[in-house]
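# step 3/5: fold
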Amino acid sequence: MNKSAGFTLVEVLIAAVILFSALAITADIYKASSFTANRVTQKANYYQATPGVISTIKSEIRALSKQQKLAEYSGEFISAGVEYQWQATRTSFKSRVKGVDESFEPPLQFGLYTITVLARQGERTPETFSFKAATW
């Protein structure tokens, strides 16, 4: 009686197909999770930087409105790897309330601006958001 102590060629081929299929699936899952992790990191950086960007833009508009009485301002800068371009348009310009004993109209000094921001980060689709800011 002939007893062999090994595997047949068919058994080895089936085991190889199963092994390489498992490796291919694992590699694909790793690639997808790495891609997702990178996108989540980029989004997190964007959303963490946004409050600081809004504060910077508001400060810049307030400083510009004290120097010049223009109805529109614009600017751009880079923060946390994101390029921001903004456009501010004055939607309202008012003076303080006239006192009862005043004979003259108070000067215009309170402005309300609508600011539109375009944020670009690498090859991603640019995101746009808007907010309002008051100046005095």
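# step 4/5: annotate
The mean pLDDT is 88.
# step 5/5: archive (pending)
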